[in-house]
Amino acid sequence: MFSKEVYQRRRQTLLGKMRAQGQQGLILFIGNAEAPAQYKDNCYKWRQDSSWLYFFGLDEPLMAAILDIEAGSETLFADDVDIDDIIWMGPQPSVRSKADAAGVAHTAPYGGLGSAVALAVKSGRPVHFLPPSRYFNTLKLGQLLPGAKPSEALIKAVVSMRLIKEDIEIEALDHACDLGIAMHSVARDAIVPGIIEQDIVGKMEGVALAKGWGVSFPTILTQHGETLHNHLHDKVIEPGKLMVIDAGVESNEHYASDFTRTYPTTGKFTQKQREIYQIVYECNELAFSLCKPGITYREVHLATARKMLEGLAALDLVRGDLDQMVAEGIAGLFQPHGLGHNMGLDVHDMEDLGENLVGYDPDQTRARQLGLGSLRMARRLCPGHVITDEPGIYFIPALIEKFKKEGLGKDFVNYAKLESYYDFGGIRLEDDVLITADGARRLGHGRLPIAPDGVEAAMAK
Amino acid sequence: MFSKEVYQRRRQTLLGKMRAQGQQGLILFIGNAEAPAQYKDNCYKWRQDSSWLYFFGLDEPLMAAILDIEAGSETLFADDVDIDDIIWMGPQPSVRSKADAAGVAHTAPYGGLGSAVALAVKSGRPVHFLPPSRYFNTLKLGQLLPGAKPSEALIKAVVSMRLIKEDIEIEALDHACDLGIAMHSVARDAIVPGIIEQDIVGKMEGVALAKGWGVSFPTILTQHGETLHNHLHDKVIEPGKLMVIDAGVESNEHYASDFTRTYPTTGKFTQKQREIYQIVYECNELAFSLCKPGITYREVHLATARKMLEGLAALDLVRGDLDQMVAEGIAGLFQPHGLGHNMGLDVHDMEDLGENLVGYDPDQTRARQLGLGSLRMARRLCPGHVITDEPGIYFIPALIEKFKKEGLGKDFVNYAKLESYYDFGGIRLEDDVLITADGARRLGHGRLPIAPDGVEAAMAK
Q1: B423 vs chain A: nearest CA distance in angstroms?
Q2: I need a labelling partner for B313 at 20 to 30 A (CA). Which of A337, B204, B329, B449 fits?
């Protein structure tokens, strides 16, 4: 964890923002509990709540805290261990020393949380809390504050802080990206026709666990890139296919990375693969080149959509006026997702707090079009934003058939030619980008090979 | 999954057992939902509920089923996918075809579960369900059957079936154990002073993910074996220490393995380490040699406790009458856990159904003594039982000091000499054992080196 001053400063800033919004009462933070996989003593790997990590840093289960907006006082709720705990977990620091590490003045037993909340409710004071990210927190909040709704004022204040990464966070993100690059390199080198996809997944996730907390999200590794979130890895790697690997490492400090590369399984792109790959590559490069303070990421998304359609038009897969196709959302047929999302302590940063409050400025409305409607980050870019740049082109037979049947895009889409792409799969290329004072830089030291020749050269090694 | 006949037969047996207990009404099974780690779209690796797997085999989230005890009818509740799902997850089999795979006659939408349960409640029919193993299931049951308690009749019927492994399960467990042995071998070969423990954990868990579903429980890998469940792996490996590795693989078929070995970090035991190791090794061998139908595992536990005290007496760490020491629970100071537990689809099989109903025969009462009181499996052994054999000796300063201060075991324990073991750590040695018609066999093909010389030889390679 960072020094206690970091957490104290953040909480002071948060209290200031709540006061500036005219808010009163308490702010309640509930840290995570262990998440049972099969029974209460066999849990998934421990992962603390991200907002808790941001404001307190304490990386242990069953903690909560209350900040008093008017009084400015802070209390950590947690329990000291007993002899049984020592047998099972070894000697543990006291709650007092944990509170000191986070710079919190007061401590109380975890069980005291209920009466502290009840007292506030009884005296009519609002209790602000964030949306629960797990079923445990939903249950806990249901006990503490039955029927209560998360506080939009609190969400907005937290989002405004976590969206703009501090220097210590950027350092942590660079590190997570270095680990992500290392993991992806191992994966790329492991691609050999004839083995099972799961063999590669194990190898790469082993790197994530050896050097970091594990993967930052369930690994996507598939020869069916047109299936956007494929978590089965039971297929034999076949020659001539495209392998999409979308994966990231969470560092031991709990910051995420998120990269996607697409590889020809035999190390060489076919002509057809290279044509589509080149378009996606150019979209990735274009997006990065446009990233700078002042432009909205919605605009960047639409610029890459235009570029994509331009490339597809050159292959005669679409026809017509580019601007009109962009406006009608034709790119969504090929890329039914957004260009990117915020990244930080979560790989989709703060998605538990609500996609629109996180990714959209107050003056922006989320589109309903396929593709643009899935854009998770649309905001006007500011220094300190960390976003992914991940264009993709997919040929999804079920989606194409649906469009065709409903007559969608019939003035633009060359459905006849598209049929010859039904077994193509998909391509996605993703980097992680920090917005700087006058532009942007890619996170991590070095970059995974991405230009088609560079990919082939890396695979030839 | 197995053939549909397997699941049909199991459900028929279950219905028969419920009827034989005079039970009526419905049996409600609720499969797991995805478990969010940070937000609803970033989940932990999918893991189905084990009892659901046992009776239905369908390995997907958001399914439920109702069996009618009187009518014998069966209904699977699940939803077919829509076009959005196809974009994200690819084409999926229909609910109907899934029901066919599990041999279930009727299907209904997942949302129909509420009215089906409500109808039974309204007409006064009991609804039997198992204890929820996750917070999601707790929430779901709270909605469906507010205030209702799990059915002990159902628990007993399910336990009686899952306790005795079928041949297809034994094959699956042998496979899981082979994977566990492979993973442990990689770990053993990776032990080198100077590296971080986490490096080994990543390597071994990579094997679990490449060849199986992952680890069957959070890996214990520690130079502080006296801490029984240590999940931090941030220490540098130091020469001259003992490294306890307690870890298992869950196979892709979701059966568990669970092995423990203890290695000298430099490849050679010191004299002092070898003395204690030899005792634990002999306890492990003794337990296995006693395993056969008819004996209770409580008796086996106590026999190893006696053996352990005998060895410790030879080192002058305890003194006095062995039987009296066994009776007074002196072994618990050194091994504050039980000799073993059931293993199957869960590494502590069915622990969500209640330790005592799973591990104790109706005529057995759980002891309260340290050590014996933690024994998870005490039953009279039967062919088809799968259990772990995991004696250990630990020198836990906080526990020894507590005993000493409270005058516990003062007639037997040589506290003065024990002080020289405060930095010793701990040793545990664990195999997985199948009870056969006339004895027992260790699961997995081959056995991880365990005799002190064998361990040193394996580490010298």
Answers
A1: 13
A2: B449
By DSSP bridging, strand A106-108 and strand A74-77 are parallel
What is residue B157's DSSP assignment?
H
What stretches of B225-303 adopt beta strand conformation (E)? 242-247, 249-250, 259-264
pTM of the predicted structure, to 2 decimals: 0.95
Q: Which residue type, as a one-letter code, is found at position B1? A: M
Looking only at the bridges linking them, the beta strands covering B106-108 and B74-77 are parallel
| Residue A399 to residue B87, Cβ atoms within 8 A | yes
Inspect the interface and report whether the beta carbons of A206 and B206 lie closer than 8 Å: yes
Mean pLDDT, residues B370-398: 96
Q: Determine which of A59, A87, A195 to mutate to test the interface with B (most B C-beta atoms within 10 Å).
A: A87
Give A202→chain B minimum CA distance, Å. 4
Element (H, E) at B333: helix B331-334
The answer to whether A347 contacts B42, with C-beta atoms less than 8 Å apart, is yes
pLDDT band with cut points at 50, 70 and 90 for residue B230 = low
Burial of A313 (0-12, 13-18, 19+ CB in 10 A): middle
Alpha-carbon radius of gyration of chain B: 24
3-state secondary structure of A145: coil
Under the phi-then-psi rule, with left for phi > 0, alpha for psi from -120 to 50, and beta for the rest, what region is A226? Answer: alpha
Q: Which fold has domain B167-460?
A: Creatine Amidinohydrolase (3.90.230)
Asked if A4-162 and A167-460 have one fold, the answer is: no
All residues of chain A having their beta carbon less than 8 Å from the beta carbon of residue B371 are: none
Radius of gyration of chain A from its Cα atoms, rounded to whole angstroms: 24
SS3 B379: coil
- B389 within 8 A of B339, measured Cβ to Cβ: yes
Task: Please indicate whether, in this complex, the C-beta atoms of B210 and A227 are within 8 angstroms of each other.
Answer: no
CA dist list (Å): A98 to A105, A106, A230, A253: 11, 11, 40, 17
Q: How far apart are CA B139 and CA A300, in angstroms?
A: 42
- Is pLDDT at A98 greater than 80 in this prediction? yes
When the pLDDT of each residue in chain A is averaged and rounded to a whole number, the result is 96
pLDDT above 90: percentage of residues in chain B? 94
Q: Give which of A62, A63, A41, A46 is closest to A254, Cα–Cα.
A: A46
Tokens of A77: 């709720």
**What is the Cα–Cα distance from A243 to A236, expressed in whole angstroms?**
11
Return the closest-CA partner of residue B51 out of B148, B103, B140, B129: B129
Q: Work out how many CB contacts closer than 8 A connect A with B.
A: 187
CATH 3.40.1090.10 matches A4-162: no
DSSP state of A236: B
Distance CA B172, CA B170 (A): 5
pLDDT surpassing 70 at residue A246: yes
Closest approach of chain A CAs to the CA of B400, in angstroms?
A: 11
**Cβ contacts (< 8 Å) between A396 and chain B: which residues?**
86-87
Q: Looking at residue A324, what DSSP letter applies?
A: H
Domain coordinates in residue numbering, chain A: 4-162, 167-460
Amino acid, res. A124: G
Contact A329, A370 (CB under 8 A): yes
Question: Which of A331, A280, A233, A238 lies closest to A451, judged by CA?
Answer: A280
Query: Which chain B residues are closer than 8 Å to A87 by Cβ?
Result: 227-228, 336, 396, 398-399
Tell me which residue of B206, B197, B200, B218 sits closest to B179, measured CA to CA.
B206
